[in-house]
Design a protein that fits this description.
The protein is mainly alpha-helical. It is 72% helix and 0% strand. The chain has one domain.
Length: 156
C-alpha cells in the first residue's frame, strides 16, 4: 500500500473511468460543440488530420484508462518501476493539459459566460486531479524518492 495516500488504488480506478469517459466524449466532440459545419468546411487534409488526431487522443486515453484499471493496485503500491514510469508519464500528460487549460485557450471563450466559465473551471479541476493522482502514484512510494529513480539510462 502507498504510504502517502491509502486510497490511491480507488482514486486511480476512478481516474481510469474518467479517462474512458473523456475518450468516448472526444469521439463526439464536433457534434457536441456544434462544430460539424465548421469541420466540413475545412480543407480535406486539415479535416482528416483533425479527425485522426481525435481518434488517436481517444485511443491514447482509453489505453491510459485500461492500463490504470488493470494495474491500479500495483501502480498505487509504487513498487514496480515500470508502473511508476507509466504513472509519471500519464501524470505529466495531464499536468501539461492542465497548464494549457489556463495558458493557451483565450479567456474570451468563457469570461462573462457563467456556463462556459463553470465548464472551464471543471475541466481545470478534473485535469489537475488526474495529474495529481498519477504523480502521487509515481512519486509517493514507500521510502524516499531519489532523483536517480527517474533518470533515463540507455544501454550502450
Amino acid at each position: 500500500m502507498n504510504s502517502v495516500w491509502p486510497y490511491l488504488e480507488t482514486v486511480l480506478r476512478l481516474c481510469g473511468g474518467i479517462q474512458l469517459g473523456i475518450a468516448a466524449l472526444n469521439l463526439f466532440l464536433s457534434g457536441l460543440l456544434g462544430w460539424k459545419e465548421d469541420v466540413a468546411r475545412m480543407p480535406l487534409l486539415i479535416r482528416e488530420v483533425f479527425q485522426v488526431h481525435a481518434w488517436f487522443i481517444s485511443l491514447t486515453l482509453a489505453i491510459f484508462a485500461i492500463m490504470t484499471w488493470r494495474f491500479a493496485q500495483d501502480m498505487a503500491a509504487g513498487t514496480n518501476d515500470a508502473l511508476r514510469w507509466l504513472a509519471a508519464g500519464i501524470g505529466s500528460f495531464w499536468a501539461f493539459r492542465t497548464v494549457l487549460q489556463v495558458t493557451y485557450y483565450s479567456s474570451n471563450h468563457w469570461r462573462g459566460k457563467p456556463l462556459r466559465t463553470a465548464i472551464h473551471v471543471a475541466l481545470f479541476t478534473v485535469y489537475g486531479g488526474l495529474a495529481g493522482s498519477y504523480l502521487c502514484a509515481a512519486l509517493g512510494r514507500n521510502g524516499p524518492v531519489k532523483a536517480s529513480d527517474f533518470v533515463l539510462t540507455l544501454p550502450l
